[in-house]
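Translate sequence into C-alpha cells.
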Amino acid sequence: MSSTVDAGATPADLPVVPVSSHNEWDPLEEVVVGRLEGATIPSRHPVVACNIPPWAARLQGLAAGFRYPGFLVEQAQRELDQFVTLLQSLGVTVRRPDAVDFRQRFSTPDWSSHGFCNTCPRDSLLVVGDEIIETPMAWPCRYFETHSYRSLLKEYFRRGARWTAAPKPQLTDELFEADFRTPAAGEPMRYILTEYEPVFDAADFVRAGRDLFVTRSNVTNRMGIEWLRRHLGPEYRVHEVASRCRTPMHIDTTFVLLSPGKVMVNPEYIDVDELPDVLKSWDVLVAPEPDPIDDRFLRTTSLCGKWLNMNVLMADEKRVIAERHHTRTLRALEKWGFEPIPCDLLHYAPFGGSFHCATLDVRRSGTLESYF
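Result follows.
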C-alpha cells in the first residue's frame, strides 16, 4: 500500500525513473493531486469571464480576489480526501503541491493580479515521456501557479527527469481581442486570443504515445500549438481536434482517450466526421448526456460546463475512475468493456474540474509506442 508523499520528500524506495508517462491509460503508478488550501476566486479579466458560464462570470467578477467560502472548500475537501484514499488503495503514489496563499498580489511591468489556486495540476504542467513542461497559461491570475510545484519539479529533476518551461508570456492587451463577444450558434468560430505570442494550457492536450491531440481554445492559440509541435520534434505528431463548443477551454470534456483504439467524444462539441483521419480505425464512443445536477448553488458556482461526466481518470486500460453521480456514464463505460470505479468529486467543479483536471499522471508503467 502506497502513501501520500509530500513535496520535497525523497523516500529511499522511490523509483529510479521518476517521470515516465506516454499516454492516458497505461497502469498508473504516481500522480500529483491538486490542493484546495489557499484557493482564491480568480481575478477579473476578459479571458477569465469568457471561459466560464455567464452566471459564474457575474459572481466571479464581484468576488474576485477573495477566498472561496469555507463551506464550498469543506465539501470539496471531503471528496478530494476520499479520492486520494481511493488512489492509494489502488497502489498509486500520490504527490501534492505546496500550499500557497493565493490572495497575495503580484505584478509584471504591465499588469497586476491576485492568484487563483493549484487544484488542477493538469492545466499548468504537461508530461510527455520523461519530460515535464511548464505551460504558458493565458489567465494572468495563474502566472506563477507552477511555483507551488517547484519542490516537486526540483526533486524530479535531481532524480533524472527533464524539466522545461515554455516561454513566459507577457499577457498584454495585444494578446486579447478587444470587445470580444462569444460567437452565437451558427456564427463562425472566434477566440479571445490573438496570435501575439504562444500560450496554451496543458489540459487542451491528451496523449496517445507518439500522437498528441489538441483543441484550439480561449486559452490555447495556434502559436502555442506550434510551439509544442516544434519543441517535441519529428518524434511526435500533434493533431488538432475541431470543437463546436462556443466557449472552448480544455479538451477533457470534449475528446477523451480511454484505451488503445477507443475514444469518447462529446456529441454536442464533436462532429465525428471531422475527427483527424488517424482515428478512422478507432472506436468512437459517444458520451451519454450527463445526469442533471439538482443543487442550484453548485450549478451556479461551477467554473465548468455540464459535461464533467466525461472528466474521468484511467487507472489502467480497463479501470476508470468516474463520478458516482453520473450513473448514465457509469453504465455506458461498463457497456463499452471498462470497469468503472465510482467516486465523489462533484463539489470540485467550483475550483475547476473533476478527476482528470485534479490530477497529473507523472508515472505510468509502459513504453513509448505508436497506436496508429
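Note: Residues 7-11 have pLDDT under 50 and may be disordered.
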